[in-house]
């Protein structure tokens, strides 16, 4: 375990089993549909890569990059689009892939934006949910795990761009982000 990590919440094996389960659920629900899976960079990059391999039909992939946290451990509440989708999503069934829902501000903004672009349906899969911190009412259609109100890193999740490549999901020691 990395010395800045206080506790491992989910091991690599636990994450992998959950991703497989989510993939199977999504496969059943979207049978016969032409699904567009949209990964929200950078946090969801690993989850997206692993999840699509567990979806048992051909899907299209696209990515958006947004940022609301920057170098801080607190959301600014202002969502900036850094990279937009490549193509129109009009009349498409879209599935947003997120690593974590915290205040809910990012997802609230994204869901509204994609609905305004006249997608046929907009659903959300999030690997993690931190419900205690919610500022707007929103929940995922598919969820991996709920997490307590601590700062989480690993498997895509960062603090100031670090820790994304840890293979497990853990709690960052408070002294690391408070210093
Ligand atoms: O529910 P919220 O409070 O809005 O927080 C969740 C969002 O914050 C993180 O992204 P971040 O802005 O840190 O960008 P990143 O994915 O590049 O790390 C995370 O990946 C979610 O997209
Ligand atoms: O707990 C978190 N860890 C990393 N990134 C995040 N973005 C929102 N909440 C978190
Ligand atoms: Mg981040």
UniProtKB/TrEMBL annotation:
Kindly list the biological process annotations in GO that this record carries: GMP salvage; guanine salvage; hypoxanthine metabolic process; IMP salvage; purine ribonucleoside salvage
Places the protein is found: Cytoplasm
Q: Which reaction does it catalyse?
A: GMP + diphosphate = guanine + 5-phospho-alpha-D-ribose 1-diphosphate; IMP + diphosphate = hypoxanthine + 5-phospho-alpha-D-ribose 1-diphosphate
Cofactor(s) needed: Mg(2+)
Primary location recorded for the protein, binned into one broad class: cytoplasm
User: Where would I find the Phosphoribosyltransferase domain in this sequence?
Assistant: 10-159
Decide whether keyword Magnesium is in the record.
yes
GO CC annotation terms, alphabetical? cytosol
Keyword Membrane listed: no
> Which GO-annotated molecular functions does the record name?
guanine phosphoribosyltransferase activity; hypoxanthine phosphoribosyltransferase activity; magnesium ion binding; nucleotide binding
Which NCBIfam families has this protein been placed in? HGPRTase
Per the record, the similarity remark reads: Belongs to the purine/pyrimidine phosphoribosyltransferase family.
Q: What does this protein do?
A: Purine salvage pathway enzyme that catalyzes the transfer of the ribosyl-5-phosphate group from 5-phospho-alpha-D-ribose 1-diphosphate (PRPP) to the N9 position of the 6-oxopurines hypoxanthine and guanine to form the corresponding ribonucleotides IMP (inosine 5'-monophosphate) and GMP (guanosine 5'-monophosphate), with the release of PPi.
Which protein, by its recorded name, is this?
Hypoxanthine phosphoribosyltransferase
Organism, by scientific name, is Tumebacillus algifaecis
Q: From which lineage does this chain's organism come?
A: Bacteria, Bacillati, Bacillota, Bacilli, Bacillales
**Gene from which the chain derives:** hpt
């Amino acid at each position: 375990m990395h010395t800045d990590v206080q506790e491992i919440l989910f091991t690599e094996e636990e994450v992998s089993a959950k991703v497989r389960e989510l993939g199977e659920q999504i496969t059943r629900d979207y049978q016969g549909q032409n699904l567009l899976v949209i990964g929200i960079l950078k946090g969801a990059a690993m989850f997206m890569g692993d999840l699509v391999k567990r979806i048992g039909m051909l899907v299209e992939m696209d990515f958006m990059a947004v940022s609301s946290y920057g170098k801080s451990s607190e959301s600014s509440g202002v969502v900036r689009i850094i990279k937009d989708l490549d193509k129109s999503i009009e009349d498409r069934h879209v599935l947003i892939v997120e690593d974590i829902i915290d205040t809910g501000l990012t997802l609230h903004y994204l869901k509204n934006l994609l609905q305004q672009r006249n997608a046929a349906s907009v659903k959300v899969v999030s690997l993690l949910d931190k419900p205690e911190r919610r500022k707007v009412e929103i929940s995922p259609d598919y969820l991996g795990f709920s997490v307590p109100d601590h700062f989480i890193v690993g498997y895509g999740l960062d603090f100031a761009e670090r820790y994304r490549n840890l293979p497990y999901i853990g709690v960052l020691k408070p002294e690391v982000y408070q210093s």
